[in-house]
Design goal:
Layout lengths: L3 H17 L14 E11 L4 E5 L6 H14 L3 E3 L8 E6 L12 E5 L3 E6 L2 H14 L17 E10 L5 E7 L7 H13 L4 E5 L1 E2 L2 E2 L8 H4 L3 E2 L21 E2 L4 H13 L3 E8 L4 H6 L29 H14 L7 E5 L6 H5 L1 H9 L5 H18 L3 E5 L12 E4 L3 H10 L3 E3 L2 H4 L21 H6 L9 H4 L2 E6 L9 H8 L2 H10 L7 H17 L14
Parallel strand pairs: 2-3, 2-4, 4-6, 8-9, 8-19, 9-14, 14-15, 15-16, 16-17, 17-18, 18-19
Antiparallel strand pairs: 1-7, 5-6, 5-7, 10-11, 12-13
Helix pairs in contact: 2-6, 4-6, 8-11
Bound molecules: acetamide and zinc ion.
Length: 552
């Protein structure tokens, strides 16, 4: 036997070195991780696999989410303690000491044949690692869950991944006013954001076509403001005024319990929910419910269809308006733990203010030269009120026209020129220009597509977006907190249509938000898309099949 010893030692060393040598392998993870090294072999995931959480309670919402996904696919993996996880085990470890490479949201994911070890500084990081692991499942499209006793049917390739986002702010918006989407759908929508590591869900809760959040002090907001006539889809483009006595049967709203449920659901997936309560424009639904808050006596209604320009505006000269807004924020802010509240501020057309004695005298009393500054006064008042409640304020970029504070977070949906101006003023920015982030626009040749609002934003163009303009200094670049994709709902007549507009463009957006520019690669991304579509298909999502390149 003696002469075998050196040989087996050599064999061992060879095996160890082979085991650790990275191999070539392609993956379909979206967004692409920062560093990924592949190794030979696979982890076999089965009902016999043990799962443990280290330094974090299994009752934590995020860990319960992970547990539920496992259970969905593996019947009942054995949840145990980390000490019992020597083999065939997955351990999720929350770092006791901050790992500076990972920042707040990053993670390390080490998959060997025996064990999967995930480390992160936050529960969000653990959830993102889990999503990456989920993207690696060879048997991702599991149509039958393997039973505890069956052979393993899901494999995860051996990898070492270190990953963290480029931008701290990675948002997707949903307008639930133009068309209403119930809680189940909102959760399904949030599931997509979670799959692709977004962390802000911007919930556009109020607009001309429906008020969608329960406010106890103003019950008519939902009794009246949440309802409009039910009309054929075709009437959206050719709106006809509400008829006397017409039944107001289309609409809906979220109760406070439902809002809490969604917020908790999102939090478990690493997603913050930011409510938007629009002011001072886009408020027909408010004025239909409380006409005394208008400048004039026009009979405002919750109408069907895209009226333009929207003339509804809250009367800035009426003290009841400011009281109303403060009362509403008193009820809204406790529902949303996220530090930001969005107050709209876009497209506030001021023809009513120009004719309103109360608005004009309010502006004169403050020596304001123009009515943009009157909006600015309202916005600053609301910002300090929100601050007094421990919140920060976000608004659409038009709020800079009224000299909003530098502390307001600006949603830059208009052109580059205006965005640069906001940056020069010192505001922080979430980039969402129509040119690259409006996913209510057509995504392929219009003649082949369901009716949409207009525009043209193919997935290749979404992918090509660079949110940090070349003109910016390194210091100014820090003012760009991130990027958001906006889904306005004028033409979202069904849930399927909402999914279709979202998918797969938000996958491209996820790489804009997560990946450093030199880690983006359109050709690589395109090869990942079929895999991602199969997985979205298996989850029942509806998506657009056209992969249209960036137009020249
Ligand atoms: C917007 O699209 N009006 C923000
Ligand atoms: Zn007025």
């Amino acid at each position: 036997m003696k002469h075998f010893a050196p040989l087996s030692l050599a064999l061992c060393l060879l095996l160890i070195s082979c085991k650790q040598k990275p191999i070539e392998r392609t993956f379909s993870i979206v967004p692409q991780p920062v560093e990924i090294a592949a190794f030979a072999g696979e982890f076999q995931l089965s009902g016999l696999t043990k799962v443990a959480f280290e330094n974090v309670s299994p009752r934590d919402g995020a860990m319960m989410y992970i547990t539920n996904v496992f259970e969905k696919f593996f019947v009942n993996p054995t949840f145990t303690t980390p000490e019992k996880c020597k083999k065939n085990a997955i351990v999720f470890s929350l770092n006791k000491e901050h790992d500076p490479v990972l920042g707040d949201e990053g993670y390390r994911l080490n998959v060997s044949k025996n064990k999967i070890h995930i480390q992160a500084n936050s529960t969000a990081g653990l959830v993102y690692a889990f999503q990456t692991m989920y993207h690696l499942w060879d048997g991702m499209v599991v149509t039958h869950a393997p039973s505890k006793k069956s052979d393993p049917s899901v494999t995860i390739p051996c990898v070492k991944i270190i990953d963290y986002p480029r931008f701290a702010w990675r948002g997707v918006h949903l307008d639930v006013s133009r068309h209403f989407f119930d809680v189940d759908f909102v959760k399904r929508y949030i599931d997509v954001l979670a799959l692709y590591k977004y962390n802000v869900f911007h919930w556009h809760l109020t607009d001309d076509h429906g008020w969608r959040i329960q406010i106890d002090k103003y019950p008519k907001l939902t009794e009246v403001g949440a309802w409009r006539p039910e009309r054929p889809d075709s009437e959206w483009r050719t709106p006809k005024p509400n008829q006397p006595g017409e039944p107001m049967t289309y609409g809906g709203f979220y109760t406070k319990d439902e809002i809490r449920e969604v917020v908790e659901y999102a939090a478990a997936r690493g997603i913050n929910v930011m409510p938007e309560i629009e002011l001072p424009g886009h408020c027909s639904a408010i004025l239909a419910a409380y006409p005394e808050l208008a400048c004039d006596s026009y009979p405002y209604r919750v109408e069907v269809g895209a009226y333009w320009p929207p003339k509804a505006i809250l009367c800035a000269g009426n003290p009841k308006v400011m009281q109303f807004l403060k009362d509403v924020f008193d009820e809204v802010t406790p529902l949303f733990p996220f530090e930001y509240v969005h107050i709209g501020g876009d497209e506030a057309i001021k023809t009513n203010w120009e004719k309103c004695p109360k608005c004009l005298s309010k502006a004169a009393s403050m020596n304001l030269d123009n009515l943009e500054l009157l909006q600015g006064w309202m916005v600053r008042e609301i910002e300090s009120y929100l601050n007094s409640k421990g919140k920060k304020m976000a608004g659409w970029i038009e709020i800079i026209d009224g000299e909003c504070n530098e502390t307001s977070l600006i949603y830059a949906w208009l052109g580059k020129g205006k965005t640069l101006k906001a940056i020069e003023r010192g505001n922080s920015i979430v980039q969402c220009p129509t040119s690259h982030c409006y996913i209510d626009y057509y995504q392929a040749d219009k003649s082949t597509q369901p009716d949409a609002i207009g525009g043209f934003l193919p997935i290749g163009k979404v992918y090509s977006f660079e949110p940090v303009y070349e003109e910016l200094s390194a210091e100014q670049a820090k003012q760009i907190l991130g990027v958001q994709y906006n889904l306005w709902a004028e033409f979202l007549f069904t849930e399927k249509q909402a999914e279709y507009m979202l998918l797969p463009r938000v996958l491209a957006g996820a790489e804009v938000a997560w990946c450093a520019p030199d880690n983006k690669n359109w050709e690589r991304f395109k090869t990942a898309l079929p895999y991602q579509k199969t997985r979205l298909n298996s989850l029942g999502y509806h998506f657009c099949d056209d992969v249209v390149e960036m137009p020249e």
